[in-house]
Design a protein that fits this description.
The protein is α/β, with parallel strands linked by helices. It is built from 13 helices and 15 strands. Helix content is 38%, strand content 17%. The N and C termini lie far apart (52 Å). Bound molecules: nicotinamide-adenine-dinucleotide. The site of nicotinamide-adenine-dinucleotide (NAD) has 28 residues, from α2, β2, α6, β5 and β8.
């Protein structure tokens, strides 16, 4: 196995950028590039001198949030459109060397409420992306999947579980089930079947600015609790906050995703993108509390589909992707709070006006 740069991790962003030199002047299409992860990835690809095109419906957030995400001012070409539109996809893939497929109806609770909308975006849309990638001379597609495919892990095991890529998968939500479908469909349609390589990344719980909660969502614990505390409301711990998350910072996730485009060993591989460290929801509240004197927690019911969670086995991403997360959870949460305090307009109006 090739050593990680600097022996201990990905090193600095400079080290990462030197590994991304293969992307210089390469044409990269990022579906969902206007969202949280996509916009951070696009900024990194721009710094690596790739020629980036974003395809995004731009309707996942209120328009006021678009400025926070910065897709329009990133310098990348922004195409406002839908991955389900075959003509749009074909037109964009005619000139693409690489694709990151990150577009999705990306909320567990919303997918449960609207499985039809989720099906259209996450299944039908993915099918169109895969068909068009297979029909064009794309070198590699990185499929963004999710740790939700593990469900609650192995039944009967007490305590937080480490999720390994080869263990059995048991999606517990519509969202997770569609992600697992996308993984299988990618394997069936790309690779040996088409000539286009693929790599699959299972993101754990991504957080970091400018993440803001979506209405009706129970995902994204860091912004939820931080904004509740910022508004002087109690931090609501669903089910007491004993669920475990592997919180991985969006800057780290962007680096892992860009590297998956170029790392040769990643062809036809699936790896976890997490830190390898479990953090309970209650611990997140404890990390936030000193920033918001007088803050307190209350226990609320655990919503359906809210997984008990687990954390990533990180051996495979260290070995194949030669990547490890660099930002620890305490540092990442501190960074999020500093951003939130400096960016009061980030608090969505629907949330500020909602009853506590
Ligand atoms: N945030 C997390 O914790 C997390 C964890 C695991 C996996 N993921 C996955 O990572 C990817 C990015 O998630 P995110 O957190 O940035 O979510 P996000 O909602 O911020 O970004 C998703 C983007 O996809 C776009 N989109 C949705 N449907 C589309 C369509 N039909 N055509 C074009 N664009 C469309 C949305 O407008 C949005 O900008 C998603 O695939 C998500 O499922 C996220």
């Amino acid at each position: 196995m090739p050593a990680l740069p600097n022996g201990t991790g990905n090193g600095t962003e400079e080290t990462v950028l030197s590994r991304l030199a293969k992307l210089r002047e390469a044409r990269v299409l990022v579906t969902g590039g206007g969202g949280l992860v996509g916009s951070r990835l696009v900024a990194l690809l721009q710094r690596a001198d790739a020629v980036v095109t974003v395809l995004d419906r731009m309707d996942a957030y209120p328009e006021s949030a678009h400025d926070l995400f910065g897709a329009a001012r990133s310098g990348a070409r922004l195409v406002v459109g839908d991955i389900c539109d075959e003509a749009t996809m074909a037109g964009l893939l005619r000139g693409a060397d690489f694709v990151v497929h990150a577009a999705a109806y990306a909320d567990v609770a919303a997918c449960a409420r609207h499985p039809d909308i989720a099906f259209r975006a996450n299944v039908r849309g993915t099918q169109v992306v895969l068909e068009q990638v297979a029909a064009h001379p794309v070198r590699r597609l990185v499929l963004v999947s999710s740790a939700s495919v593990y469900g609650d892990g192995v039944p009967g095991v007490d305590g937080p579980q480490r999720f390994h890529e080869d263990q059995s998968l048991f999606p517990l939500s519509v969202y997770a089930n569609y992600k697992l479908w996308a993984e299988h469909q990618t394997r069936l349609m790309l690779g040996a079947a088409s000539g286009a390589e693929y790599a699959v990344l299972r993101y754990f719980s991504v957080y970091g600015d400018p993440q803001i909660p979506k209405p009706g969502s129970h995902s994204w614990v860091v912004p939820w609790l931080a904004i509740q505390a910022r508004l002087g409301r109690p931090m609501r711990l669903n089910g007491g906050g004993n669920q475990v998350r592997d919180l991985v910072h969006v800057d780290d996730v962007a680096e892992a995703t860009a590297l998956a485009l170029v790392e040769e060993q990643m062809a036809e591989q699936t790896v976890n993108v997490g830190t390898g460290t479990p953090t309970s929801v209650r611990q997140v509240a404890e990390f936030l509390a000193p920033h918001f004197p007088g803050s307190r927690c209350i226990t609320t019911p655990r919503p359906e589909g809210d997984p008990l969670g687990g954390f990533a086995s990180v051996e495979r991403c260290s070995e194949l992707l030669r990547w490890r997360a660099r930002i620890g959870v305490r540092e990442g949460i501190d960074r999020y709070v500093q951003w939130l305090l400096a960016t009061p307009q980030a608090v969505p109006r629907w949330l500020a006006e909602a009853a506590a």
